[in-house]
Amino acid sequence: MELAAFPQLPPDHLATGAAVLTAIYPDAGNPFALSQLKEQEGLDAWTVPEVWLINSPAREVNHYVDITETFDRKVAAVRAHASQIKDPDKLADRLRERIAPNTAAAGLPDGRLAEAFQAVVTG
pLDDT tens digits, residue range 27-60? Predict the structure, then answer.
């Protein structure tokens, strides 16, 4: 993955995403890559069946999730990044505005909220 494709994301988010994807493929299915997990925890290698990417570089959205019931938790989680939130009082409105196109694309009725993902089958 070319990290330069995400110039708007914080470097720690980019590094975490790259580390997760590397751990999933090829390492998770390679019994020699993380042998200490077998030795210390008894965990065998396995194939992660799919990965859901949000804001992927390909922008190939193929899966939507209705987040209406958990939207308040999303707002609280984002608000916890206080150093990155300029106006916490307007955060919920900004998030609703950002995901409005997802909601329409998912075919959800007015008043619902959706998050968009690129679901990648790995196995």
Answer: 888 888 888 988 999 999 988 899 999 877 667 8
Contact 94, 42 (CB under 8 A): no
DSSP state of 31: T
Global confidence as pTM: 0.76
Token pair in block for residue 71:
């939207």
**Every domain of the chain and the residues it spans:** 9-47, 49-123
Does residue 55 contact residue 17 with C-beta atoms inside 8 Å?
no
Distances in whole angstroms, Cα of residue 69 to Cα of each of 25, 66, 92, 113: 32, 8, 14, 9
Around Cβ 116, how many Cβ atoms within 10 Å? Answer: 20
Beta-ladder partners of 119: 52
* Dihedral pair phi/psi, residue 23, rounded to 5°: -65, -35
Is the torsion defined by CA of 95, 70, 58, 9 positive or negative? positive
